[in-house]
Amino acid sequence: MNTSRPEFSLCCQNDNVQLPYMKNAPPTLSNLLFGTDRRSKHFQDNIRSYNMMFAFTSLGGKVQTSINTGAGPYTFLLQGQNYHLLGSMLPEEGARPKFAQLYIFDTENEVRNRIDAVRSGNGSNNLDTQIVASLKDMIYENNVLAQSYRAARDRFSREGLQGVKLKLVKSRSTDGRTYNLPNASEIAALIVGDFDMQEGVRDIVVETQSKKLQRISELHPLYLPFQYPLIFPYGEDGYREDIGLRDSFRVNSGKRKNLTMREYFAYRFQKRSIDSPVLLNSKKLFQQLGVDAYSMIESQMLNFIRHNQDQLCVDMYKGIEERFFKGDTEGTSVGKRIILPGSFIPGLRYMFNNFVDALQICNWIGFPSLFITITCNPQWPEIQRVLNDTSLRPEDRPDILCRVFKMKLDSLMTDFKKGHIFGRIRARKS
User: In the chain, what are the domain boundaries?
Assistant: First the structure.
């Protein structure tokens, strides 16, 4: 970078974002993730299966595995809406324990049943029982979520199964900018007897035994540690709504004071010498987290659009305007509509607007003579330089591939616009 005063906007928004560094992984996980022996390589190749073994929640979307049948790089493809589901603490009569239920009944037979369930659900027979046993001991010793479930198990063994529930607390008493490692008593509480749902509508209440699954909000701080116990081995908080920007604590202005989900992940997906390297070295599991992160960010954007329709002036869109001029001032025949503005990139209105602009350019200037494409080369020196001191392959860091590809694309477009490679540009669509 040819400047004496570099600015960093992607990682920390010009030093406005401050998050606590993630604690170094326990030795068991660190040895498996960064080792070079046979067991370590086996764990690294099957890390998603091992994470699924100890996950507290399940993915709501359907993972498409047929795309990885060829010789190409591994790709995590998720179909359908993505969300996380949490079951009850105890399984139904005669059913196998699954997900968080494993932490209630952790006998050798139940662990083997869980291994069989993961094998059948993931199409893999490569789970090592010794690795499973070592990871189980590590999680029980370090993860505050597992400790909360074990506290519920102890209550069951002492007093039976009458009316015990586990409340997973959403609010935190500590500052989300400087502290993210809660203790077991702060994240969960045991409830005996009846529970008034109105008292904790934003918390998660896990019932003793239920035939239904409940969906966890993307805004709950346990959303990520529940799904990724091998990336958050201590049960660290994920994204929280109350994480403030640094400037908001110095100047009382009318600007936004809290961190967005995109800023949270932009900060986390950066390599720092003093931060835990587990997240960025989780290979296939990091790919899954990246897809999860994108869906969380998009969900938060849609939630903002849903609750801020007046600010977006959606009543000026053609469909509603026509109803109004026809005399339908109540809108009862139309129903409640949520309008996606043209600024929402995945939306149809954004796509249609760009399509119309492109047609208008062709109508005025003529159809294009060249169709130029640019593809990403994993052997680009910028990518290889990042991976030199690691055992990662280019597909293990999709964030780096995307960033380098975007820089190359921007450079190519600058050559077209300012370098006049094909002559002076008469029209363009940014």
Answer: 27-242+271-304, 313-338
